Amino acid sequence: MYIDSPDTGVIIYFLSLEFIVPIKKKQQEVVGFLEANKIDFKELDIACDEDNRKWMRENVPGEKKPQNGIPLPPQIFNEEQYCGDFESFFSAKEENIIYSFLGLAPPPGSTEGRIIEEEPTVPNGDVSGEENKTAEETEKSEATEANEVHTEDNVEAEAESAERVTEEQEEGKEQAVTEV
């Protein structure tokens, strides 16, 4: 559920420009999922607020930035802690670990909560299959990174174009105010 509170944990940095369809669809999927699961969140627009855009860009970790260094929305944070981008969100959703991804405790009875509760342990206290799990996570992580690079390359040009349009609009507003 969207809430307008400074104390909100989950924050989605989004782009309000309607004409960049790939970004808009990703944003809608993230917001729709959070709303359907009654997870509180706050949206911060990077198109209309330069401070939001600057903060998002500075706080996305370097390894998550595309080659041009400009991360595209949606970017997800819990307070000031980076959670991930759309591809990371989608992977967490598919693996039923969305609450962990968001830095939240899973609700009682949820699939993720049951998975955490049911992890078998061996007599020495280690989680059984931990080595296999780590190898699988590494493979998934590498596949996700490859997909992110490909996806971000396709959308980068559109986002850069949108930013130029936004900047031109802002410059036009400034000129109009100056002329008055």
UniProtKB/TrEMBL annotation:
Region of interest called Disordered, as start-end residue ranges on this chain: 110-180
UniProt biased composition (Basic and acidic residues): 130-153, 161-180
Gene3D superfamilies the UniProt entry points to: Glutaredoxin (3.40.30.10)
Similarity section: Belongs to the SH3BGR family.
Membrane spanning stretches: none
Superkingdom: Eukaryota
Any Gene Ontology CC annotation: cytoplasm
Protein name: SH3 domain binding glutamate rich protein
Organism this protein belongs to: Anolis carolinensis
Pfam family, one: SH3BGR
